[in-house]
Amino acid sequence: MSHSAREIINHLGKDWVCRDSKTAVSAEQILNIFESLDKVLPKKVQCYFFPVSNSINSAVLFLYFISRNINFFIGKETEKEVPGFCDKVIRFSGSTFQDEIPDAIEVSDHHDEVNAQVLIPDHGIVILKSSGTTGSPKFVKYQLPAMMLNAGKVANTFSMGPETRILVPVPINHMFGLGVGFLPAIIAGSSIYLLGNSNVVNINEAIKSFKPDLALIVPTIGKMLIKLNKNLPFKPLFICAGDKLGQDLYLEFERNVAKMINLYGCTELGTIATSPVNGTIEERMDGSMQAIENVEIMVENGTKGELLCKQDAGFDGYIDSSGRNVTIYERDSWYRTKDMGQIHPQNKFSVLDRVDQFVNRSGFLTSVKEIESAIEGLVEEVEQVIVVIDEAENVLGKSLTVFCKVTDQDIIDADRIKRICLQSMERHLVPEQFFLLEQLPLLGNGKPDRLSLKRISHDRQNSIRTEN
Amino acid sequence: MIDKTVLEQKTDEVMSTLKMIAAENLETDVSADDIDENASLYEDGIGLDSINVVSFIVAVEEKFELSFDGDDINTSVFSNLKSLAEYISARKV
Fold this sequence. Notes:
The structure holds two protein chains of two kinds.
Chain A: E1 17-19, E2 24-26, H1 27-40, E3 48-51, H2 56-67, E4 72-75, E5 88-92, H3 101-104, E6 105-109, E7 125-129, E8 139-143, H4 144-157, E9 165-168, H5 175-188, E10 191-194, H6 200-210, E11 214-217, H7 219-228, E12 237-241, H8 247-256, E13 260-266, E14 270-274, H9 281-285, E15 288-291, E16 295-298, E17 304-311, E18 317-319, E19 325-328, E20 335-344, E21 348-354, E22 358-361, E23 364-367, H10 368-378, E24 382-394, E25 397-406, H11 414-424, E26 433-436, H12 450-467
Parallel strand pairs in A: 1-10, 3-4, 3-5, 4-7, 9-10, 9-11, 11-12, 12-13, 25-26
Antiparallel strand pairs in A: 1-2, 5-6, 7-8, 8-18, 13-14, 14-15, 15-21, 16-17, 17-20, 18-19, 20-21, 22-23, 24-25
Helix pairs in contact in A: 4-5, 7-8
Chain B: H1 4-25, H2 50-64, H3 81-92
């Protein structure tokens, strides 16, 4: 299996197809489009800003860039700010490459006040933006061969080949859709269905028409398929990344929907581990993971702590918006994942939560997720709970604030929820402050915006102090 | 053979119930009367997002006491309220 970017298109078979909900493209058509793009696109570009979506146009342009070793930054369609290291912006005009190639794209110059020249010596650079779950988003710089090496390992892990068909209803402008779906499929010669705006209706329809062997999902889609409770017209192997489903939901998914493998990875290192692909349902359900080839995992002391990872196909480092290196990642060094984990026998491990979601309370290393689950299980009227760790400390350790979304604020208030918790939970698990919110703020990726909640907590406590 | 007038009356009744269910499942404050039956069900139309699409389907099944087969859950039937109303009324006649 060749991992060379230049060769990847040539090895796609005659039956290979990449499609979205409207149209499809074959390998032969792609090569024809490439020839036209060679004539249309400007030469000597330092780095393109390229808003990528789950469409045929994006897929073809992506393959064009990697086959020509052109540097590009994978943006989102909604991205407003073009980073300074991009000197050209490429956008789609609405028509498809299959119709009018020159009319399908618009290329414009981008001049930033910072003269960004740092990328000039490099070729075949792919830049992504991290999700910003733990702070401000960062620009993550990859050498194309490293990204392709990682994708090749994923293809091997899932035994992907020319006969395999993969449904990608998660965005390919994130590492999951890109590094687990799109690129492994290209390397293995597997056919691809790129689905945008995923909901149960178009996922169900895509599964029926495309008959995928593999389908990528996030836990939200998994929960939606469970709630829909229908026999799928075809049962692919689902690969799920993100916060793992609880054991009950996992079991329900496997019983009522199909087999599911959990995948662990990050923008910086790509895929790190999966639940045992050929293991039993119990092995998949308990959340334990096995590192993929040439990836090592450890914790510093004992068997529980921050997961450290060594990967031969990781990123180069972080760059700033003018292209300057901020942090360089050494391949033989241990990367701090910022995830708390536990090492198990037989080279297995499990991911517990983000490191910053653990707090020492009365000498107990406590996960905020554990507190959130306890409150959700205890108070019937509570729909969702987010606990944030405050800067202030008290005798128990760092102070905790909990934000609750409840079914009806006329029925229950924050004081009552706190009283229920104090009656039933161990003291060190009960947060100090309880607030109700009509809506909990979310990040673009759908995860709770804990930084905003931390600010709200700080402001509310200040205002209470002032009133007192 | 189904009488066309009966089917149209049935579709009108189904439509007003569907508009009510859609309004209940939308996160914005919209009245059932303001929902366009020809607009897409999704975010480019009346605004059902990926999560409340599921709640909407489940609510429709409960209200009309029917169960969609996996095959029925497709973008033709679930295109807009009109296509869905026609499908339901054809099943209910």
